[in-house]
Amino acid sequence: MCGIVGYTGNGKANAVLVEGLKKLEYRGYDSAGVALQHENRLLISKAAGSVSDLEKALDESGNRATAGIGHTRWATHGRPTDENAHPHSSCGKEIAIVHNGIIENHQRLRNRLLDEGHEFRSETDTEVLAHLIETYYEGDLLEAVFKAVEKIEGSCALVAISSEEPGRLVCARRDSPLIIGLGEGENLVASDIPALLAHTRKTKVLEDGEFASITAEGAEIYDSSGRVIDREIFEIKWDIEAAEKGGFDHFMLKEIMEQPDAVKETLRQRVDPESGKVILSELGLTAEEIGRLEKIHIIACGTAYHAGLLGKAVIEKLAKIPVEVDVASEFRYREPLLNENHLAIVISQSGETADTLAALRLARRQDLKVLAITNVVGSTVSREADEVLYTWAGPEIAVASTKAYLTQLIALYLLALYFGDARGSAEPELVLELVSGLKALPGQLKAVLSEESLSRLRAYCDHLSKWESAFFVGRNLDYAVAMEGALKLKEISYIHAEAYAAGELKHGPLALIEDGIPVIALVTQKAVFEKTLSNIQEVNARGGAVFAITMEGFDDVARQVESVFYLPPANEILAPVLSVVPTQLISYYTALARGSSIDKPRNLAKSVTVE
Ligand code: AGP
């Protein structure tokens, strides 16, 4: 989710690039840089930190430059440092590139290039591309980019410049967006629209597998065989704020809709296409260490804690290791019984949550290995843990966590399968079913996020928004999802939503069920299906209005409830990845109907860095 800007024209490239990068900082940044064409050489300035930090590091002599490229980085491979910041360049710095995406075969290519005598300056996957292009460069940058991109596997939005071709930008796009901006006597390229709007609203979108050559006079688009493509001009109507949200009204909805891609990115490179085995090469835990584990403690806060509850269920089922799940603020003060044969897993989107950090430090003081699941490369949690399993959700801006939560579930499923494989404790048929089920999730999530689903849920929320309290109920894995659904509704609509184990209603909460009160029931777990149905009947008998989220094939549900939302059929262990999405949309549309502040709800912060 990095930010990319390229400019060629008669203006001051430095200023244009820096202003463009500032418009992309919402996409996350931990370092930034620019490369300018100036007097037959490239001036490269880069800095860890924000674009403002980059401004202080800029080479003044570049102020008259008329072409260049810029980048704000959201680190994936390599910590946020000056050296790892983009642009990356060839050995002699005649070629510089900026890149968004993940080069999956970067290690193999790096080894080959090192053998050929190339010298690397960073630990990033991207730098491999700069040296590859250098290898193929024979005076035409576009030709060299064609050949280099052909050699890489993975996602790539790339813009390259050469000191030998003043005024020319060369681009390539695969899986990661690039948009060309057409100005008067100047042209631009960016990873996202906000960087273009100060200069032009006339754009041409690069499609997957396409390339472009851009100069101040114009832009040509090519397919991978070098054939020119005649692409129509697309006029941008959005204002800057809408553009930052990708045209959505709120970051939360944008991030809900990004979940198929976030899940796909988090799965990328982590399932061996041949064997179907989970490969977590980033973890240093040996099979012997995993075999020796007597207990796992999952510690987190809020939504991350709810992900941990599901992590417990799948790790115990597949790896047969007892798991305890704690809210971090409780864990630290309950004098937990720990020993070196236990593993602590801390889950934190931001990687900066004070309570979770304190729990991590407590576990380390008692000689436990700590594995962190986090979304931010270089975060404190990632630096203090022994092992890190990153989620690749990209920057999550809305306070209410959605795509980060979903990718935390994916990371926990992968971990459970990986541990189960190491301990030989997972049934092979179940493993195969789950691995193929994981691969199917991005497509199934797209189906759940269809226009028809959104309008159905929005209609229900017009009704729900009129209530001041609501219940979420479920059993087994459905109960963990109910807890997450209740938190989402609470934190952005301010309705007092409560999650309860469906079997517990008769032990007290049923007293609160009165005529019409909204009850959202999760019904996806076969083993407890009949029991959950009878709990729904208990609610119906007292006038509660039940909205059920269930799976196609669970036919008896519709007859028992006021309305039902069907999910595509999936293995019930993976059902939470699908069933939580309607609850996210219910909280979003209910908050919308109530006019509350969705991306920045009252009293809350995105990362709670205080106790
Ligand atoms: C999620 O919707 C909440 N905003 C909050 O519960 C959050 O999950 C919690 O503060 C933990 O944050 P972390 O994942 O960054 O550690």
Overview of this protein structure:
- This protein has 611 residues and is an alpha/beta fold.
- The chain has three domains: 3-244, 4-Layer Sandwich (Glutamine Phosphoribosylpyrophosphate, subunit 1, domain 1); 254-447, Glucose-6-phosphate isomerase like protein, domain 1 (Rossmann fold, 3-Layer(aba) Sandwich), CATH 3.40.50; 450-594, Rossmann fold (3-Layer(aba) Sandwich), CATH 3.40.50.10490.
- 37% of the residues lie in helices and 22% in strands.
- It contains 20 helices and 25 strands.
- The strands form four sheets. An eight-stranded antiparallel sheet has the order 3-2-4-1-10-9-11-15. Strands 5-6-7-8-12-13-14 form a seven-stranded antiparallel sheet, with helices on one face. A five-stranded parallel sheet has the order 17-16-18-19-20, sandwiched between helices.
- Strand 23, helix 18 and strand 24 form a beta-alpha-beta unit.
- The structure holds 2-deoxy-2-amino glucitol-6-phosphate (AGP).
- Residues 301-304, 348-350, 353, 356, 399-401, 491, 607-608 line the site of 2-deoxy-2-amino glucitol-6-phosphate (AGP).
SSE layout:
Blueprint: E1 3-8, H1 13-22, E2 31-38, E3 41-48, H2 51-57, E4 67-73, E5 88-89, E6 95-100, H3 106-115, H4 127-136, H5 141-151, E7 156-162, E8 169-174, E9 179-182, E10 187-190, E11 202-205, E12 210-215, E13 218-222, E14 228-229, E15 234-235, H6 240-244, H7 251-257, H8 259-267, H9 287-292, E16 295-300, H10 302-319, E17 323-327, H11 328-331, E18 342-348, H12 354-365, E19 369-374, H13 380-384, E20 387-390, H14 403-423, H15 428-448, H16 451-464, E21 469-474, H17 477-493, E22 496-501, E23 518-523, H18 529-541, E24 545-551, H19 556-560, E25 563-567, H20 575-594
Parallel strand pairs: 16-17, 16-18, 18-19, 19-20, 21-22, 21-23, 23-24, 24-25
Antiparallel strand pairs: 1-4, 1-10, 2-3, 2-4, 5-6, 6-7, 7-8, 8-12, 9-10, 9-11, 11-15, 12-13, 13-14
Helix pairs in contact: 4-5, 8-14, 8-15, 10-14, 10-17, 15-20, 16-20, 17-20
The structure holds 2-deoxy-2-amino glucitol-6-phosphate (AGP).
